[in-house]
Amino acid sequence: MGRVLTFETRLGVLTSQLARRFESVVSLHAIAWSADAAREQVRRAALSNVRIETLPGNKQLCEFGRFDAVVLLDPDGDPTGQWESVRETLVRQVVAHARELLTERGCLLIGGDNSWSYQRIGQPSRRPGLALPRLKSRLGRDFALELFVGDVSVGSTHSPPPELCSAHVSLPPSIHAVTWKSHAKRRLLELPKLRQFWPAFVLIATRGDPDCFLSRQLRSMGDPRLPDWVARERVAIKRIIAGNHGVSVMIVGPMDRSSRAVVVKSSNTEAGKQLCRTNAWALEFLEKSAWQHLTPRLLGLYDCEGVVMTVESMCEGAELGGVCASDNGPWSRCCDQLLALQVRDRRMEVMTQDRFSNTVGHWIGQLKRLCEESLRTRLTGVERRLSELMIGRSFAMGLCHGDLKLGNLLFNDIGKLTGVIDWDGIETDGLIVFDYLTMMTYKLAKEEKSDLESTYVRHILPWELPPAYEQGLAPVVQELAPDSVGFQLLRIAFWFSLLHVRFASAFKLHRTWRSRMLDNVLPEMERRLAQATTL
Questions:
Q1: Are 194 and 169 in contact (CB under 8 A)?
Q2: Which residue, 194, 168, 189, 167, is CA-closest to 178?
Q3: For 269-302, what is each residue's pLDDT tens digit?
Q4: How far is the C-alpha of 12 from the C-alpha of 28, rounded, in Å?
Q5: Tens digit of pLDDT for each residue in 356-385?
Q6: How far from 271 is each of 157, 267, 284, CA to CA, in Å?
Q7: What is the CA radius of gyration of the chain?
Q8: How are the residues of the chain apportioned to helix, strand and coil, as percentages rounded to the nearest 5?
Q9: Which spans in 144-269 are helix H?
Q10: Predicted TM-score (pTM) of this structure
């Protein structure tokens, strides 16, 4: 498929994915340790068609030659932080040099979060900056353009999610129906706190036929379970999300319509393939359960030349990003809905040595293999005390989502839970309370604009929550926590579960992340364990 230029934001995962689909890849990095991590990723994958360069440097973009594709993706926020200070300048440079960088039929793909779209670095926060319509106009008439915000094509009917309007802006209900160019909507988009929750965007600029490769891919499958528009209309990628372990998540729908479509998950790494298959199994399992009204429907699981893909229906609703701690209604109702489903099949089971070794012991063991000697010694002590206190106790076990962060929960415009997505971490015999601790940690960290480890030490470990949250979680604690000591042990074990699910790849690649997630947590964790030992 020719040459591709990418600005790496996923520690080499994006580069490795592209290298399997293109003849050659030039991968650009802003800092040396990210480039080193990418080289290691490429080496392990045995890829020989990748050239890794570190910027800024003396080289200009045009010196790398022409490409069949230029890819600049940052849908979830760049976890490496390497492009943070130059992200807007970078986008402008790519757009300005698009004609020189791309071949005759080349494609430019830019995906990012709201701060790329509306905020100008170093300027007052209410100044719009690199607005999406302006980004389109800068490419001129030489390119066929598609611009997607969230999962909706930007057009005359595009408007912000209603719950964000009602939560953040004192405007009449009619604001929900106004068009993109209206003065009211411009005011809405310029609010800094709203921009924090605005969905990611994808801009695709092509010189040739803008038909998406998925049009041909999906049509070739000929699966009657797929929507009828797959066979009749051209398909567009309306949003791209870079998932963990190399899984790409795409919102896909008809190119000429803004109606909601399907979710396509794709991966050709072994870990990613397994996640896709697990998610497919989970959706089939949940379709026959009490969860079916909240989960997507699996439309197909395919293996396309070594690339495992799943296609699933979309759940209605949007993230509950705008609800603050004082507004306990939607969040409390969400906990009640989930708890009602989970307690139906809940079982109180004794923690055995084997169960502990396969869960908590396994998570801590993974960390010990990656940490320095001093941290390994302390982790061994924590593991030993946890095993002594947890083995023989009964805990609530049952169906768990495994990664119940806010982005995996969808709500309608009145704050009712309508969907639970991304089931690749499903456990049918897991510690149920972990789902609620995950949700709480992410939600408090987002509202307080704090990091996860500080939120955990400040709120979760001592169980000192804002009153609204404590009230909302009271039924959960009553149903799922065995006693105060058992609940304390669960909260300690939860942190290792969270690191296992969310930060496994980061721990392997960067020592700073390891020490940050443990050095700031272990002292308080050890103190709490000592207290539990004396009770």
A1: yes
A2: 189
A3: 788 889 899 999 999 999 999 999 999 999 999 8
A4: 10
A5: 999 999 999 988 887 788 888 999 999 999
A6: 40, 8, 20
A7: 24
A8: 45, 20, 35
A9: 162-168, 183-189, 192-195, 213-221, 229-232
A10: 0.69
